[in-house]
Amino acid sequence: MLGAISDGQGSVFMDTKTFDRFVSQQQESSASVNWSQVRNEWLGDLDQLYSKIESFLAKYLHAGQIRLEYRIISLNERDIGAYNARQMVLRIGRQQVDLVPVGTLLMGSKGQVDVVGPAGKAEIMLVDGKLDARRPRVLVTVGVGGRLPVASSEQVREPHWEWRIVSPPPERRYIEITQESLFQLIMEVANV
Q1: C-alpha span between 28 and 177 (Å, rounded)
Q2: 135 vs 112, more confident
Q3: Is residue 90 part of a domain?
Q4: What CA–CA distance (Å, rounded) separates 14 from 191?
Q5: Cα(192)–Cα(87) distance, rounded to whole angstroms?
Q6: What is the pLDDT of residues 55-67, one digit of tens each?
Q7: Mean per-residue pLDDT for 33-56?
Q8: Is residue 44 part of a domain?
């Protein structure tokens, strides 16, 4: 163990300098993130999803066959804190389908919206579209001896975030949001 001190009888104690470095690194990493910017980007991404859905439903909205409204909900995420977001509510006859924002600080995605209807719940996630978007991936970096491997220039790239429907378990897949896939999702959660 780096920075560890042994008492000669098998007990290992951490050097306080190691702990000091750890505390200092945590302060630097926390201060280096603009959490207001993270929140605002997430809310912008959410607005883009809603605009896309509105465009797919435009024919039905203009005809009055689907009513759309937004409700303000409160979210609270670690580091970002409490903030308000819009929840989309679709009313199709007697059916109601809610698109409920979950948050942005999630493992494996930049954001999630739950699609909730009388027959169940589905997920839409903001994922890196440059990866194989057909199925979720877990990317893990393993270091040896306390050192992390140096990333190659091929590994370091900006993600291209895209909203995708996530299929239910056990074989979770990412499905591109098209008019047809959105209609199917709405019918599934509305039990049609």
Answers
A1: 38
A2: 112
A3: yes
A4: 58
A5: 22
A6: 999 999 999 999 9
A7: 95
A8: yes
Q: How many domains does the chain have?
A: 1
Q: How high is the pLDDT of residue 27?
A: 67
Instruction: Please give, one letter per residue, the 3-state secondary structure of the chain.
Output: CCCEEECCCCCEEECHHHHHHHHHHHHHHHHCCCHHHHHHHHHHHHHHHHHHHHHHHHHHHHCCCEEEEEEEEEEEECCCEEEEEEEEEEEECCEEEEEEEEECCECCECEEEEEEECCEEEEEEEEECCCCCCCCCCCCCCCECCECCCCCCCCCCCCCEEEEEECCCCCCCEEECCHHHHHHHHHHHCCC
pLDDT tens per residue across span 146-155:
555 555 545 5
107 is in which domain, residue-wise? 33-189
Is 18 a member of any domain? no
56 belongs to a structural domain: yes
Question: What pTM value is reported for the model?
Answer: 0.73
- pLDDT-derived band at 117 (thresholds 50, 70, 90) equals very high
Whole-angstrom Cα distance, residue 109 to residue 26? 23
Beta bridge partners of 75: 83
